[in-house]
């Protein structure tokens, strides 16, 4: 079992430094630390979701999200990974996007050490079937063995020696139990990169605290689905924290409203 160090209290539950006025349209940060200020670690446990979509709502081009990427997107993507304790991704997305091992670049690892964090975040894969390829780099080159979240009827034995399997329900995954298990390991700053099915379940369970949504300046047309799929849930209002822009790319950060 991997237990992460306790985080330092730097921000309020909405994700902004205490007493700091929320600026809806800040300038693009001139330093990496500026992005950390805009997408900080929060004082309270937080599940932050990062997604990209086209102007007309498509989440992929030719089946992959890479066709939507543009200026500024990778900087935010890398910064969100740098500040999180654990990265949560659905199995289908891990396979379709051919995820590599969760190995951060040297400066990001140095930043984590300086802030009392483990050098690498935990990689967490959510899967009903456990139908994965052990030779995929997300397993074979992992600096820390991934955690795989599943249910009791899944064939956990097939992942013996390559991942730690966490059972969260009898015949279906209980995402609330997953959250409790991760928090117990000290992983309170959680980041999810999808896919749409996982986001749909997280949203329906009212587990999403923040949504970082990148809007790519493309019209893709019909075909690709939206960022969340699955059964409808109860709508939950979110509060806009800021809007960033770079060369027609739009970056929105929403968080639960401050009570």
Helix vs. strand class: alpha/beta
- Which stretches of 5+ consecutive residues score pLDDT under 50? 9-14
Please report the total strand number as a whole number.
9
Described by strand count, sense and barrel closure, the largest sheet is: 9 strands, mixed
- Summarize model confidence as the mean pLDDT: 91
DSSP strand content:
15-25%
Shape verdict: globular
Q: Give the distance, in angstroms, between the N- and C-terminal Cα atoms.
A: 35 Å
Instruction: Count up the helices.
Output: 7
Q: What is the topology, as strand order, of the major beta sheet?
A: 5-4-3-2-6-1-7-9-8
Write up what this structure looks like.
- The structure is a single chain.
- It is built from 7 helices and 9 strands.
- It is of the alpha/beta class.
- Strands 5-4-3-2-6-1-7-9-8 form a 9-stranded mixed sheet, sandwiched between helices.
- A hairpin with a 2-residue loop joins β8 and β9.
Write the layout of secondary structure elements.
Blueprint lengths: L31 H7 L7 E9 L18 H11 L2 E5 H6 L9 H9 L7 E5 L10 H4 L6 E4 L13 E4 L7 H10 L4 E4 L3 H9 L5 E7 L22 E8 L2 E7 L4
Parallel strand pairs: 1-6, 1-7, 2-3, 2-6, 3-4, 4-5
Antiparallel strand pairs: 7-9, 8-9
Quick overview of this protein structure:
Helix content is 22%, strand content 20%. The chain is built from 7 helices and 9 strands; from the N terminus they run H-E-H-E-H-H-E-H-E-E-H-E-H-E-E-E.
